[in-house]
Every structure is written in C-alpha cells, then in structure tokens.
C-alpha cells in the first residue's frame, strides 16, 4: 500500500501560500521545519565545533543543580516524542483507514522537526557541561534563544488560520482533535522553553573564569560591598520568587481586618477598570455608527451619556486619573503606609540585633542611604506590579481575544507580534543597562558616605586645614556619579526610542489593514474608530510598560542593599530555649576562655579568673592585650571560641541577652551621646526614671553643679554625638546614666580616662560608693585609680601574666611593677615641668626694675 501519493493535498500546492482564509498547511509545514532545521544545523554545528575546539569542560562543582534545567530538558525530549508520535499516528491512520492519504509534507515536517529539535537538545546538553574560556556572557547561546523564539513564533502563526477549514480549530473530527492536542503541546512547550531560556537555569550565574578565579583565591574580604555584603554582577531577577514572597508578606496586613478589606476592595476596583477599558471603545463605535446610520436622537443621546460616564470612570485612558483609579489610589494609602512602617520597623530592629562586629565595619551614610532607597522602592514596586504590570498584561490578553473574536486573526496577530517584540527587546535592553544603574547607585553611596564621614569628622578636618581636600574628594565622587548617571540616562533614551519604533510600526500596520477592510466594505467606519480608539488605548499602557519594567528593575536594584541588610545574620543569637538570667550573688567566672576577632589571631588565650560577689577586679596591661575584649565578652557582644563565661554558675551563652544586660552597667571609654538634651541622655539609663532620680544620679556623678551653670540647665542640647560637651562632661553623663540604671554588675572601661585629676578623684569617690556590694570589673590605664582593687589582673598578649593585689604585685617586681614605675616617673616629670613653667611665668611677670636689680 502506497501511503504517500503526493506532496500536498489534492486541492493544494506548495506555491499557494493562502488558502480558504488561512495559510496553506502544505506551505506552512514545509517552510517552518526547513527554516528551523537550517538554523539548527548551520548555527548549531558552528557552536558545537566552537565549544569542542575552544571550550573546556566545567568542573562539576560549578554546574548548578537546578530542577528547572531538568524540566527544560524534559520539555525538549517531550517535543521530540511529540513529533515522532504524531508521525506514527498519522501513518497508522492512513494505513488502517480507507480513502485517507498521507501528504508528503507531513513526513518532511516530522523528520525535519525531529532532527532540528534533536540538535538543539544536544547543544543544550553541551552548554551545560562545556564553556568557552573567553566567554564573558552568561545565559544560553544566541543560537538556542533564536531557535526557541522562532519555534514559538511559528506556532503562533497558526492563529492566523483561525477561520480556515484546513486547520484544526473547529475540532469537528478525531483527526482535528489529535492535531489540536499536538499543537497545544508544541505551543506550551516552545513558550516555556523560550521563557526558561531567558533565565538559563542550568548554567552558572556568573562567567566561568570569574568562578574559577574566586575559587582559587580567598574571597572573604574581596568584593565586599559597603554594607558588608558581596556585590555581584547578576540579574536583578535573581531570587525573584524570594523577593516577591517577602514583599507580599508586607502587602497583606496580617491581623488588621480593615486593611485586608481595603486590599480586596482595591483589587476589585482593578478588575472594574479592565471591564471599563473594554466598553469605552465599543460605545465610541456605537456613537459613530448611530450618527452615520441616522439613529434617533434619544438613542444617540443615551449612548453618548453612557460613553461619557464610562470615560469619567476611566479617566484619560489606561486607568490614569479616572474616578476609579483615584478611588483606588486613595484607598491604597493606608495599605502603603502599613507596608512602609512594617519594613522600616523590622529593618531597624534587625540592624539593632546585628553584632558589634558588623556595626564596627559598617558605613553609616551607606546604610542610611540604602534604607531610604530600599523602603521607598518597596512601595513603588508593589504599586507597579499590582496596579501597572498585571493590569497591562490583562489588557493586552483581553485585546488579543477581542480582536480575534470580533475582527479577525490578523489583528490579534499584529497585537501579539507587537507585544512580543516590545517585551522581548525591553527585557533585553533593560537587563543590559542594569549594570549602569547598579554602578550609579554604588557611586551615589560613595559620594554620600564621603560627605557623611567628612561632616562627622568636622573638627579633624579643621585641625588639619583639609577643607579643600574634602571638597575635592566630594567633587570627584560627584563627577564619577554623574558619569554613571549619564550612561544610565543614555541607555534609557535608547530603550524609549526602540519602544516607540515598535509601537508606531504596530499602530501603522493595524490602521492600514483596518482602513483597507473599511474601503472593501467588510468593516464599517465605526469599526475603524473602534480599532483606532482601542489600539491607542492599548498602546498607552504598553508604552508605559517599558517604564514600569525599568522602574521595577530599578526598584529591585535599590532594594538589593536593603535585602543584603535583611540577609545579614545575627552573630550573637539567643538559644531556642534560652531562659532569663537568675541573679543571686553576682559571681563572675571566666574558665579557659579563647577568643579571636578574626581567624588566625587569638586575642584571649586560655584566660581564667573569678570575681567574687561584691569584689572589684581590675584589668591592666599594654594596649591590645585584651582588656576591653573581656568587657565585651562579658556583655556578650561576641561569642567565644572556647571555654565558658558564667554568672552565678549560669553560662551566659544559654540565657537571653536582654536579661543578661539588664543586670550589667557599662561606662565605656569613648562615650557617644544622643543628639538630645542632657536630661534625656542621663535618663537613657532607665527610661522610666523621674526628673528627681535623674538629678540624683547627676549629683552622684559630680556633674549636677556643672549642668546648673548652663543657661538651659538639664534642657541643654548636647549636639550630635555630644560634641557640645567636653570629654570629661560626656564621661560624667555616661557615669550618671549607669548610676541611674543601678545594675548589680558594673563594668568600667577606663571610665575616668578623659577627666582631670581633681574631677577624677571626685568621680572615683562616687564610683566607690556605687560599686559597694556590687561585682565590679575595671579596665584601667592609670594604675593609681585601682590601688584598692581586691584583685588586679595583668594581661599581656591575651594571657594573664600576673595576678594579685597592688602591694603583692609591686613586691613581685614584674610587669605590673614596671608599669607602676614608668607612670610614677611620668607623673614626676609632668609635675616638674608644671613647676618650671610657673616659675618662668612668674619671672616674666616681674617689673623690669626688680628684674634688673636681681640680675645685678
């Protein structure tokens, strides 16, 4: 039996491209596989030769494990099976049924398509395991993206033949139903392959050579952003699902029924806008038809009123400034405020939960700038996605269905092709210009950080007469920022011009086609008006779609630093079942403690000591010996690497940090005050304290009389970081703050280092009263201040070199005795210098005659 008698059907030929209101199946199923197979073998072979000759096999550890890649590969295999299965089904049908011939183009289509897709699947596998060494791009090769795009576009051409009886759209026979099912598989599969191809899930996110270089060197400190995170030249859609899930949690106001109802109401208004956008052009068409057909005044007037009402609800087009959109924007204000508040509060709380190590390495200006941009971008991002992107896509889909249903498939094809080109080029160009936006943000951060650092160090700038230097540095940073800004704006102009060309081309082709049908008598004038109104209405959101996409892209870029702040892990965390510290007597124990700020350099090495309840232990030693580190570890700013720190037998790592710190008061060496009045700065020790208690604490810290000499007394503003107060005044405010807290354990980190001798003695007397019956650990530089300590620990290179009371250590004649002698000699030298200076001053003040007589 001869299954194939002719290449085309009996009533068709390869030369006929249009047959019965549709594309000729013989022409279509010959052209499409031929083009795809030619591209596959020509470009695919070149790529395969290039990968084999000039490429190298990727190490398995650099190949990402991706379920999406497995899905991508499975789709390719499914397409191969579909082509072979479809051919086998048609052969069996032609062999078993009488009067059915199998056209030759069906065999050619199946064979060519199978070969082309097999070659594309092979290259998909080659790209996953081999890479061009000099390849500086990421993602799939141009061949695969072009192949998938053409295949998907070819399947969309079937819509043009919507009314043709030679295609399967009517589903009036088993053959048509099977062919439609096979087409549906091809349509969905090629579309998914193209979309997944833009993301390239099976390939590394960064160039392979960069991965190798990063693997071969220590990258712990390289590539760190100003926030402590790593800046990567990756797509802003990386981790899109995670980012959107985080955003949605902020948008839906949990626990607030009123706001939840507002969200639902706003979504309902969004759906109403879509319906209004459909009926506005229809009623405009009815007005034109009514005027041209000679309808009654009552009918035309009613139609005009309905049209104006719809136009009032819609606004200027595309849902802009209409009654519905204004109502939705008004209702959304509270939801937007909720999102903004929750994001800022959670981020602020998260920053306070980060470790001291992170805060010491941060740049304040950069962090604040990132928070500002990030929180503002969240609101704009939600607004663009929910109220711009989704509605625009919905309008496009509705318009395609409407044009195909009420006009013909050509208009739907024009809208679809225009949309596909527009979105594809928008995505490609926007992804390309992302690097410029990211670089502009980095330069902006640099400029702001330089400005903040310079202003915070205003006095230092004045000391060294470096105003011109600071201004020059800031100007250089601004120039770099403006250069990046120019690149960003120029690439944006290129994007806008490309979008305008595509929209204008679609509008021109559609208008000419519609005008042609009107002149042929197939359409009425009202249909042309309907098309023009609808297409312009559609082009408006489509024209803004690129802006929305760019804004979303920019918002994601602006949010990257904020997300990196959220992703910073807390170094010091409470255990899951951590309890409160049960304070009994105040016994502090260090048992074999090891600690290092960085790997390789230990700050404390096997440190062990005990502070009995009510005792005062002093820590002395050269700079960098680990004295202040002991204070920080006891306050649990860091986790130790070995040993145990306990209070009353309770390991401080097993109790809640808040309960631990509630029992400990610290007077730091470098006191930084809030930009508030003195009363509130002292009250910070205990927020609930009364004014009388604040003043009593100030009296105990020997600063009350000094405060009363200020014109505004306790209401005196201390300035940023307390710069309006002297070093001694700031230190006494810190001491008063700690006295007000009334802790059971007191840590003094060189608390009197910034005070003069007389004030130091007064403060020491006050501290001695405060520390009575309290466990106290003192870090001291002046050994004279810790003579009365119950125990003195001498630290040297992270170890306890000596321990004992003052007299015992002097008797030993060791490191402590040497430090004591050097300080005594320094004090004697200072005293003699002061005496000589006074004598010299007195001599200069004597009258000339007396001075001359004495000289004689």
TrEMBL record:
Residue ranges crossing the lipid bilayer per the database entry: 27-50, 71-92, 104-124, 144-163, 183-200, 257-280, 300-324, 381-404, 410-430, 501-519, 531-552
Localization terms from the record: Cell membrane; Early endosome membrane; Endoplasmic reticulum membrane; Endosome membrane
Entries under Pfam families matching the protein: ABC_membrane, ABC_tran, MTABC_N
Main localization (coarse): membrane
ABC transporter domain location: 588-822
A biological-process GO annotation: otolith formation
Top-level taxon: Eukaryota
Amino acid composition bias (Low complexity), ranges on this chain: 823-834
Stretches for region Disordered: 822-856
Membrane topology, from the record: Multi-pass membrane protein
Domain called ABC transmembrane type-1: residue spans: 264-554
E.C. designation(s): 7.6.2.5
Xref: InterPro entries: AAA+_ATPase, ABC1_TM_dom, ABC1_TM_sf, ABC_transporter-like_ATP-bd, ABC_transporter-like_CS, ABCB6_N, P-loop_NTPase, Type_1_exporter
Catalytically driven reaction(s): heme b(in) + ATP + H2O = heme b(out) + ADP + phosphate + H(+); coproporphyrin I(in) + ATP + H2O = coproporphyrin I(out) + ADP + phosphate + H(+); uroporphyrin I(in) + ATP + H2O = uroporphyrin I(out) + ADP + phosphate + H(+); coproporphyrin III(in) + ATP + H2O = coproporphyrin III(out) + ADP + phosphate + H(+)
SMART domains, per the entry: AAA
GO MF annotation: an example: heme binding
One GO CC term, this protein: extracellular region
UniProt similarity note: Belongs to the ABC transporter superfamily. ABCB family. Heavy Metal importer (TC 3.A.1.210) subfamily.
Known partners and oligomeric status: Homodimer.
Protein name as catalogued: ATP-binding cassette sub-family B member 6
Organism this protein belongs to: Cynoglossus semilaevis
